[in-house]
Amino acid sequence: MKLLENKVAVVTGASRGIGEAIALKFAEQGANVAFTYLSSDEKAKALEAKLTAMGVKAKAYKSNAAIYEETETLIADVLKEFGKIDICVNNAGISKDNLLLRMSPDQWDEVMDVNLKSVYNMTKQVIRPMMKAKSGSIINMSSVIGVMGNAGQSSYAASKAGIIGFSKSIAKELGSRNIRCNAVAPGFIETDMTSYLKDGEAANGYISQIPLNRFGTTEDIANVCLFLASDLSSYVTGQTLNACGGLCI
Ligand code: NAP
To answer: So what's the pLDDT on residue 90?
Structure first.
């Protein structure tokens, strides 16, 4: 028996990186997957085809998670097409790193909108059908930077710390409806977002701070999300799972 047989999952920001790995992992475990992206049309199309070839229902949506009305339209369509939503992974995120002295209000707002407001937008849409079904798992992608802070990343850290507080609150608000809400805090994971960290001496400097002595893979994070999405974590809510190779012990 597959862990997510007949479940419907929505994953934001799945055309690349961690989101793509989550969509593939969930499909491998039997879930039908609706996923979003912003601009990578070809990659999204390719992923949709790959998921469908795995024998599940899949659909790519070009939908900006930072815009409330777009998430409203998205979730209405997913419910029409897929019939229900069991799992929502709020993964879409960006970084616009800068020292605070040089950070413009626009840079700050963009990170907050894509990383934090998006989580409000999506969660607000999915809880209604989940409440009706009396079940659901919401997984919000935070970061170890939200747990530890980092110079030059104040907007990113604030948005990711905000996700942790939001997730705890939703866990308390909706636990009695059997809706679980958890956050995942990845460390350095090999994706486009961290490609600038990978080379030369800087990479060795980062790796020396990680007890497991390597950057994480997207599959490392997808496996954590699989645990939180499935009934294996049926008594886990309001938690932040640090998947960082021990970086933030
Ligand atoms: P990535 O490789 O840069 O991919 C970002 C994904 O999000 C893409 O699919 C992108 O779509 C989508 N996206 C961006 N803005 C969007 C928006 N407004 N609406 C909908 N989709 C949007 O990023 P990643 O490294 O996989 O990171 C995924 C998540 O994990 C982010 O929340 C990130 O903060 C978090 N995280 C990453 C790391 C890491 O080391 N990589 C560590 C901790 C936390 P397009 O392809 O169309 O642009």
So the answer is: 99
